[in-house]
Amino acid sequence: MSFDGSFTHSMRNELASILKTGRVSKINQPYPNELILTIRAQSKNQQLLLSANPTYARVQLTKIPYSNPSVPSNFTMIMRKHLSGAILTDVQQLDNDRVLKFLFTSRNELGDQTELCLNVEIMARHSNIILVDQKTSKVIDAIKHVGSDVNRYRILLPGATYINPPKQDVQNPFTKTSFTDIDQLIEEFPNVQVLADNVRKMIQGLGKDTSLALASYLHKSDQTETNFKNFFSQFDEPKPTLSNIANNKLNFTAFPYPDTAKNTFYSTLSELLDAYYAEKAQRDRVREQGAVLIQVVKKQLKKNRTKLKRLTRDMAETENADAFKIKGEILTTYLNKIQRGMQTIELPNYYDNNAMISISLSNQLSPSENAQRYFKKYQKLKNAVKYLNEQMKLTQQEIDYFENIQSQIELAKPEDLIDIRYELEQGHYLRDHEQHGKKKKAKRQKINKPEEFVSTDGTEILVGKNNLQNERLTMHTADKRETWLHTKNIPGSHVIVRSFNPSEQTLTEAANLAAYFSKARNSAKVPVDYTKVKHIRKPNGAKPGFVIYDSQQTLFIDPSEDIVNKLRK
């Protein structure tokens, strides 16, 4: 599952075969640690994704659309200045390490030809993208600046001399000619797991899964050199594979490794990575870009849940209201037995067979005032019941609302966060976090369109991804005769089937979308209500996306990602 040096070898071959002699037409930085170069090669526009993400660092061609920030970063502007219109002359790998070098020829402001190298270092949290002038070996810029206070060996700052990552005392498997040392390892470590650990220390560019696969190959026969070369030759003719490993986890490899199950094959390594990383990387981007939203929602949920507990406790206290009334009536009956200055008195409770009841008194009040004090407590608690019921209802609505927002953030694409942020700003939940004031508010009026799907029989299905999209879709876009679906009593998306009389198959597929884009995505037998749009109503003063409905029927669905991908337009 690692983007190791051997996988990088295969990816280098793929990128070189597709992109060499291509011209850079666009440069964008949709996310802080990721750069996309649009390269026109072989009469096609190819999106080259260079990622220095600490968790999902990689290099690949991608077909996943990205939304770019309205204001490009300084790094993007420098890349555009030097690489716009540049020709990619070669793609090289540093030995068998996780470093790819994209070599470009370009023209500077004076029209002179320049040679540039865009280095992509895939090294977990140390991953980086560095543009270097090949003639001077000087760093032009890096997506992550690394000063001497962080790394004394190499500085990655504009103007610094570029130095390759430290070279390890290991062998490149693609240039290795002698195999006596491998024979010794096999003889010394017959166990596959132990052999894999030791081979990894000797051979460059082996992740844990690759070293285990190599160890299994080496045990096939006594022909060590043949087994070794056969294994690594497969990286030159990859068969991109997505497979299941232990604990039902997914693993991507350049070709099928031993001891894997449910192998799915792809035509290119880039398509394989799109399939593997699409959701994982997206969740990471959402967490990164939506950090403020997530924090605000958590804060609001914590505040309202605490408030609800307090209100519930206060409501429980109102159950004692009748006890205060009884004490007040008993004191009124036996006023002649009470004397000013008493702090407690025992009197017969004629509501309980004249059993003696102890009643606390204030020594500062007269007997009559003590009785009135209990009547006032009783009346106060009785009046509080109505207020507490109302507050508990409002607080529970706030909890439901923010649980819904929380669910939407979990299911959101990065571009969906814009609508969610705007909604929270409109509700004044984000007033302490606004950075651009009224200008931003005035500009951010347009709501993104709902996602489009097409059922098996060709019927269009629309899915809202947040409250603002849901409200516009259901209350403004949909025809009253079309069908509306939503998970029953579970936060989720509004789904509209754009048909007056949809088939059962279309209804089932739309219900799968409703269940998948809900908080119950990972559950089974998810209840999904459906009814005509004409039966949907929004209560006065309700928050965006909140509706009530009737005349509904219910389907029970097991959400399937495969069906969602099949229906996606």
Automatic annotation (TrEMBL):
Database matches in Pfam families: NFACT-R_1 (PF05670), NFACT_N (PF05833)
- What Gene3D superfamilies does its record include? fibrinogen binding protein from staphylococcus aureus domain like, ibrinogen binding protein from staphylococcus aureus domain
Give the record's GO biological process terms: rescue of stalled ribosome
A GO CC term assigned to this protein in UniProt? RQC complex
The name of this protein is Rqc2 homolog RqcH
Q: Does the keyword tRNA-binding apply?
A: yes
Q: Which GO terms describe its molecular function?
A: ribosomal large subunit binding; rRNA binding; tRNA binding
Its family remark reads:
Belongs to the NEMF family.
Q: Tell me the subunit arrangement.
A: Associates with stalled 50S ribosomal subunits. Binds to RqcP.
Basic residues biased stretches: 436-447
Keyword Coiled coil attached: yes
**Domain of life according to the entry:** Bacteria
Note the coiled coil stretches, chain numbering. Answer: 294-321, 371-398
Where the record annotates domain NFACT RNA-binding, the positions are 452-541
Task: Provide the transmembrane region boundaries.
Answer: none
Cited InterPro entries = NFACT_RNA-bd, RQC_Subunit_NEMF, RqcH_bacterial
Keywords, A to Z, come to: Coiled coil, Protein biosynthesis, RNA-binding, rRNA-binding, tRNA-binding
Any idea what job this protein has? Key component of the ribosome quality control system (RQC), a ribosome-associated complex that mediates the extraction of incompletely synthesized nascent chains from stalled ribosomes and their subsequent degradation. RqcH recruits Ala-charged tRNA, and with RqcP directs the elongation of stalled nascent chains on 50S ribosomal subunits, leading to non-templated C-terminal alanine extensions (Ala tail). The Ala tail promotes nascent chain degradation. May add between 1 and at least 8 Ala residues. Binds to stalled 50S ribosomal subunits.
Where is the stretch described as Disordered? 431-451
